[in-house]
Design brief:
Elements: E1 3-7, E2 10-13, E3 18-25, E4 33-39, E5 46-51, E6 58-60, E7 68-73, E8 78-83, E9 92-99, E10 115-116, E11 120-125
């Protein structure tokens, strides 16, 4: 079991930065593949970034590549999403997620993730 709690959301102007954190509890954090997703009203939850257990492989959605960075600190049981050059279209509720399965690369599908945080709102104004 993995419990996830996000923090760090808020409001920022376009071009600004935010860093989201997701603290995990449970003994299996180091074995978990971690991801960030986001969702806006009326739309499906979409993949933003994913990171494997060893933090070697990282995937990003095309819309955020080059602006967002996912990292993890297994000693602190925490995953981060550094968001730079934010745009109004980045406005959404952001969720961290995890799964524990022997996969080579982090999945970009929300259906692969078994554990979810409660979400944190990010609002980017123009």
């Amino acid at each position: 079991q993995v419990q996830l709690v996000e923090s760090g959301g808020g409001s920022v102007q376009a071009g600004g930065s935010l860093r989201l954190s997701c603290a995990a509890s449970g003994r299996t954090f180091g074995s978990s593949v971690l991801g960030w997703f986001r969702q806006t009203p009326g739309k499906e939850r979409e993949f933003v970034a994913g990171i494997d257990r060893s933090a070697i492989t990282r995937y990003y959605a095309d819309s955020v590549r080059g602006r967002f960075t996912i990292t993890r600190d297994n000693s602190q049981d925490t995953v981060y999403l550094q968001m730079n050059s934010l745009k109004p279209e980045d406005t959404a509720v952001y969720y961290c997620a995890a799964y524990i399965r022997p996969t080579v690369n982090p999945s970009t599908s929300r259906y692969a993730y078994d554990y979810w945080g409660q979400g944190t709102q990010v609002t980017v104004s123009s």
